[in-house]
């Protein structure tokens, strides 16, 4: 079992949410990213897994902001909303509008800290505030954050119902089905369908969404929001194909997603680590172990540069499992013990879980 892990949505959120807050706290912008916990996104068995100078300067600046602000994964929203709720606002006086904005901000911080019940309470309070001041954009925005929170908590039915409400509100405002905001929601509903085992609905949703995104990319080839969604959706669709046993197709989609997100953010980012791990899982299922190791080593190097102990630990364990598949037991045990130590040292449950799985597999192999 080489594990899917990595919270791609959370990764993208850290790159976006804090950047928008730093730019203008009163211009409340959502690059909404819904995520699901890594426990849901990973597979347990190998058989079932799965111009130029300015752009570089901007990418470096974005990465620096992310690294200096957060040291651990938080919730990521994926709906690409951009609501300027109330204009600039008055920084000197707290108005009902700024109270609403601040309440929403606090709720998102609670979500990042996994204080979900508190976040839910604050969002209901924010919804009442938005209704009291009759802010249509505010109401829609709160519904969207509620939907993303439900998705984070794996309350998929609730999340889908909320996302459908958000979509209806957007369409009532004049947004078409080809708008990136609508396509974000469509991609998330397709992803949740996959997580719930409705692979037919998921496949239909991803196919519909990707066809429209491909047209948008041709029309807006420099739009980072469109490109980001295109990459995220390809990664999710690849996970669906892994479940269907279409490993070659999945691998190709993961690679396309990786290229897109590198184009948006550069190589040194958590999303690259996540997708490289997914590519390695595809290679393992294709029994291409050399390629799997090469891909994991590339991911490991990035994780180390990012000082991301959580991903580093899981990747070390995954490398151990690849060595185990090749019959290299001593090398596998060394890597899995290293992964376990990394997990213990950093109190990271994912790394510990994966390392223990790897070590148990080694024990089972030696008993045979």
Automatic annotation (TrEMBL):
Superkingdom is Eukaryota
Which keywords, in A-to-Z order, does the entry hold?
Mitochondrion, Repeat, TPR repeat, Transit peptide
Q: What is its main location?
A: mitochondrion
Q: Matching SMART domains, A to Z?
A: TPR (SM00028)
GO terms of biological process kind: mitochondrial respiratory chain complex III assembly
Q: What Pfam families is this protein classified in?
A: TPR_12
> Which Gene Ontology CC terms are recorded?
mitochondrial inner membrane
- What is the annotated localization of this protein? Mitochondrion
Q: Which family does it belong to?
A: Belongs to the TTC19 family.
UniProt protein name: Tetratricopeptide repeat protein 19 homolog, mitochondrial isoform X1
Q: Which organism is it from?
A: Drosophila hydei
At the highest ranks, the source species' classification is: Eukaryota, Metazoa, Ecdysozoa, Arthropoda, Hexapoda
């Amino acid at each position: 079992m080489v594990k899917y892990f990595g919270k791609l949505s959370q990764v993208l959120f850290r790159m976006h949410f804090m950047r928008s807050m730093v730019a203008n706290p009163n211009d409340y912008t959502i690059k909404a990213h819904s995520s699901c916990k890594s426990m849901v996104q990973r597979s347990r068995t190998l058989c079932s897994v799965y111009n130029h100078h300015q752009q570089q300067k901007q990418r470096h600046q974005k990465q620096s902001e992310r690294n200096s602000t957060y040291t651990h994964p938080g919730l990521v929203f994926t709906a690409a909303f951009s609501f300027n709720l109330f204009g600039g606002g008055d920084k000197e006086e707290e108005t009902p509008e700024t109270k609403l904005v601040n309440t929403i901000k606090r709720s998102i911080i609670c979500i990042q800290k996994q204080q979900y019940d508190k976040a839910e309470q604050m969002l209901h309070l924010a919804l009442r505030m938005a209704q009291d001041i009759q802010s249509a954009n505010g109401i829609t925005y709160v519904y969207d954050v509620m939907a993303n929170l439900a998705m984070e908590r794996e309350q998929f039915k609730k999340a889908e119902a909320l996302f459908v409400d958000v979509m209806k509100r957007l369409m009532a405002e004049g947004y078409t089905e080809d708008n990136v905001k609508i396509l974000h929601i469509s991609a998330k509903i397709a992803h949740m369908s996959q997580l719930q085992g409705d692979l037919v609905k998921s496949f239909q949703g991803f196919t519909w969404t990707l066809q429209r995104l491909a047209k948008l990319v041709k029309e807006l080839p420099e739009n980072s929001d469109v490109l980001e969604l295109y990459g995220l959706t390809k990664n999710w669709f690849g996970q669906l194909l892994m479940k269907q046993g279409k490993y070659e197709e999945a691998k190709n989609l993961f690679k396309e997603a990786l290229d897109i997100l590198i184009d948006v953010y550069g190589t040194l980012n958590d999303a690259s680590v996540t997708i490289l791990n997914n590519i390695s899982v595809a290679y393992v299922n294709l029994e291409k172990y050399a390629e799997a190791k090469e891909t994991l080593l590339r991911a490991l190097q990035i994780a180390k540069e990012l000082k991301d102990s959580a991903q580093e630990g899981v990747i070390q364990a995954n490398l151990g499992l690849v060595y185990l598949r090749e019959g290299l037991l001593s090398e596998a045990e060394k890597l899995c013990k290293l992964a376990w130590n990394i997990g213990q040292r950093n109190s990271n449950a994912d790394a510990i879980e994966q390392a223990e799985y790897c070590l148990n597999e080694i024990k089972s192999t030696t008993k045979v």
